[in-house]
């Protein structure tokens, strides 16, 4: 599978999303591992089967097995952390913020890839999951380790586009039944 095969799943009314996907797949602000790990973590965070399958296939040629597992683990651990920490942030009773979380998250100490990459993936997933506290925390670490604001922005754009693709495909699936290349009016490439 290729990026083009994923864009073919996007209907014509969402052409902008297909163009953004193509542009982000070609961007050079991030390393290939950072970029495709972000795509993979975001696909797993959103959880739409067709998007996961396409991005898994595309990223398999770029990411080592260890890096792919790390990207998946970023989606998994942030699924937990984003709900917990977003809740603490939203609650008026600050007593909960002083309590020990007691949630296992050992993967954060040794994710199997450079810490910077893992932080980037965690930031992107946190954007999808809407946790401002986690976004601020991961962005601070990234910027503290020399990542530029445009590199952080690139990860946020990947998160936004993967989320949009997933939303469109989920909606089309609900509207038409399962998607295939034969029943979608393709976006102009």
TrEMBL record:
Reactions accelerated catalytically: N(6)-[(R)-dihydrolipoyl]-L-lysyl-[lipoyl-carrier protein] + a hydroperoxide = N(6)-[(R)-lipoyl]-L-lysyl-[lipoyl-carrier protein] + an alcohol + H2O
Residue span(s) of domain Carboxymuconolactone decarboxylase-like: 95-170
Top EC group: oxidoreductase
Function: Antioxidant protein with alkyl hydroperoxidase activity. Required for the reduction of the AhpC active site cysteine residues and for the regeneration of the AhpC enzyme activity.
Keywords recorded for this protein, A-Z: Antioxidant, Disulfide bond, Oxidoreductase, Peroxidase, Redox-active center
Organism: Asticcacaulis endophyticus
Lineage: Bacteria, Pseudomonadati, Pseudomonadota, Alphaproteobacteria, Caulobacterales
Record-listed E.C. numbers: 1.11.1.28
Residue positions of the active site: 131 (proton donor), 134 (cysteine sulfenic acid (-soh) intermediate)
Tagged with keyword Disulfide bond: yes
DNA-binding found in the keyword field: no
GO molecular function: disulfide oxidoreductase activity; hydroperoxide reductase activity; peroxiredoxin activity
Chain ranges passing through the membrane: none
Disulfide linkage: 131-134
Annotated GO biological process: cell redox homeostasis; response to oxidative stress
Protein family according to the UniProt entry: Belongs to the AhpD family.
UniProt protein name: Alkyl hydroperoxide reductase AhpD
Classification via Pfam families: CMD
PANTHER family in the cross-refs: ALKYL HYDROPEROXIDE REDUCTASE AHPD
